[in-house]
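Blinded run. Sample ID left blank on purpose so nobody reads anything into the name before looking at the predicted structure. Input follows.
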Amino acid sequence: MKKLNPIARLALLLVLLIVAYSLFAIGACLLPDEPVKRHVVQTLERGDLQADYPRAIMPRSECQLDNYTDALILNQAYLCSRDSLLRSAFGNSHSTIGNASTEVLANLVAGHAEATDRYARYWHGSTFVARCLLLALDYTAIRYLLYFVSSLLFVAAAVVVWRRAGWLPVVAAAAALLAVRVFVAQFSLQLLPVVAIAVVAATALALPRTRGHEQAVMLVAGSLTAFFDLLTAPVLTLGLPLCAAIWFMPNDTGLRRGLRHVAVLTAVWAVAYVATWAAKWLIASLVLPDNVFADAFNTIGYRTSDIESWSRLDAIAVNLKVLPWSYLLLILAAFVVVALVRFSPRRWVKSLLFVVVALLPYAWYLMAANHSYLHSWFTYRAQAVSVCALLLAVGALRTEN
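Blinded prediction complete.
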């Protein structure tokens, strides 16, 4: 049998992923309703969703939990089997009676919310995961589980990278994630997936066995982002794996080859991200009486539009403002000292590539200006890429042991 060329293998992998997402969505809708609904009721009775945007740990806007979207996820999970199977799996219906999202969910559970709307342009992977977890857990228990599993993931990733590359990239990544208050995202069905995908993909690229398979890793990361994410900080799943790919490049890599490598990995991620979204629009348009493509393109036009009295540069400024600058300058100064002690300019190519990657979040903010400005309290987390990349740009100028 003739072997597939690399592009055909990547295309086949993408198709298999989309088929897997579809089967998972259908399978989740086939799960029994009674335990799911019982645990949603328990969640409301215990008051874990009392407000749409409560602040966790620190009383600042950048530490807001997105209970609004988590309540929507529970809303969709509650109604998942209300329609026909395919329309349930690809229509993503939710109740709409009420003002706050938590109020809408309470009205739904109380039986006062009959009106529904579809949210079909996204895959809503978190909704289907939530429906599986709600078979045995209420939302409070799910939050504990998310925090526990994600903490184990971070520790495992740190050990893998440290054993392969030493302490410096581990500290850079940890400092970057702390700068964007990752400990808040760990409690959220909405905010955690992009962080988890980014960390897993970056860790995968640190494994020797993935050498030669970097494009497949980036394709899976881009596709999973489209399946789970609702535009929280998708660039995380591109930028952090790119940082790992650059760090583990041979030190004698030339600038042209390095730029080409980064460009190819970025293109693979972008194609997978866009194609996975487009696949959902196509499937949903075939299954539903709606033109999901029109809805998606209208939303894209709005989210990428100018912001009335504000400029696209303001979208960057408002996200920059949220970062803890005194903390970042202290960490950067420490990295500069470490680099100067054993300074070597021979790896300047890697440093320059890291600087290029550091610009990715700001390119996203310019493109999705409206969304990035209005939702800066969570879109600012994309800048973990910039922080990590700039720290590694300095660290790359340090000679190896």
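Unblinding after everyone has recorded impressions. Residues 162-395 form one domain.
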